[in-house]
Amino acid sequence: MGRFVVAVSAVGDILKFGIRGCFEFISFEDFTTDRDALLAFKNAITVDTNAVLSNSWLTNTSICDWNGVSCGIKHHRVTALNLSNFALHGKLTPHLGNLTFLQSLDVSSNNFTGVLPIELSKLRRLKQVYAAFNNFRGEIPRGILANMSLLEEIVLGFNKLSGVLPSDICNNTPKLKRLFLDANQIYGNIPRSICKCSEMQELGLSMNMFSGNIPTEVGNLTMLTVLSLYDNHLQGNIPSSIFNLSRLESLLLGQNKLSGHVPTNLDKLRNLLVLYLSSNNLTGSILSSIFNVSSLESIYLNDNSISGSIPTNLDNLLNLQVLNLSSNHLTGNIPFSIFNISSLEYINLDGNKLCGSIPTNLVNLLNLRWLYLSNNSLTGHIPRQIGNLSSLLGLDLGLNLLAGAIPKEIGNLTSLIYLYLYGNHLTGNIPSSIFNVASLEFIQLFRNNLSGSIPTDLDNLQNLQILNLAMNNLTGVIPKEIGHLTSLTHLFLSSNRLTGNIPSSIFNASSLESIYLDGNSISGSIPTNLDSLLNLQELSLSRNNLTGSIPKQVGSLTSLIDLQLGFNKFTGSIPDQVGNLTSLRRLDLAINKLEGLC
Fold this sequence. Notes:
four-stranded parallel sheet
């Protein structure tokens, strides 16, 4: 007849639940089955970093009181196992398949290895499986994907799972709402039977190795809000059926090999928030109808072969935060309407064939943090209104045909980190106001026609890592204040008309990895405090008027890869310490007056 235990174990519980509670029984064998399954799981844990299981999963306490374990009120069987972020190492034991009342399993964000046990397919009550952010390998058990009628959520992303998806996926999982297998090594085609998961709301198969076409049947998933297939090897056209998914909020198909024209019926997706079609082989032009989807917050069409002009009705997108059309073949002017969208935080039009001047209506872009317009054919001046972009972190206008002076109003951008104005026809002095922007980490002004001296008020730039003023017409001496820049790693002052000596203070900037002062008219000797530059990899002082001997301290630059001292007036012998530079790949001492050289 077997043994039974009363489910309500205390008089207080009897009073609480009433007489009916006295007759709720569970089998002792069922209870011990759950306990044994959990103990087997515990024994398979090799590292319990935070002692979560070793301090809680004790045989003299009820399993329903164990950390991460939830039990049903009626039968006291294990219904949920939530062990996410417990820093556990080990494998999942097949004994988990004996937790027959289990509805939710969450072992995500640990360090589990091995395979997902096929025995999980026996758990007919299971509704959620979360095992993302581990190191599981092997194939996903077919039964999980094809034969669990109550399953609602499968989240297995960011593992090392492989194999193909079963062709009968979704045949008997009619309630599946969320399937996330992102960032694994799954390959093959996306099965057409995926459309049988008619309640699917979120489908994530990105960052795998799927190939073939996107099945047109995906368009039958009418409840879908998220379709994430980016970073695979998918090819062919984007199925037009996708644009019947009126609930779709995120369409993420970038980083594949998709071809054909930019979709013309995107305007049917009235709830779309994110459009990510980057890094494909899409051609054709951008139709103005795209910009009628007023819900859009992010548009990524970059790194395709899209041509034509940018439609002018962008100001319909009152919620737009990100616009990335870079690395295409777009022509024409930048529409003024772009700069009327006050919600914009990121604009990237790099690498196109855009012409005309930069619009001046910049006063509305108070939320803009990144503005990238480089590698186009933009002309005219840099508008002084750019100084109104008070939230700007990055400004890249490089490789255009911009002329005139750098506006001093850039010094108003007190949060700026990146300032890239290289490869233009800019003239005049470098505004000293720029060097008051303490947040700057990268200043790239090389290959212009800038003149005058380098500003000396540099002490505010304690975050500066790269200062590149090469290939201009700068005159005067190298400011000694450069040596105060404690974060500076790369200094490029080549090909100017600088004179005077090399300030010894520069060699106190121990973080420096590259120093390029070549192609100037610098005189005097090399300072001897070189031994502070333990991280220096490149030192180029060639094509100057330097005199004296090469200091022996150069031998202390053990990280040096490239040493260029040619075309100067050095005398004396080459220091023996140069032989200590075991990492050196290039040494140029030509056209000097050194002893022992032909």
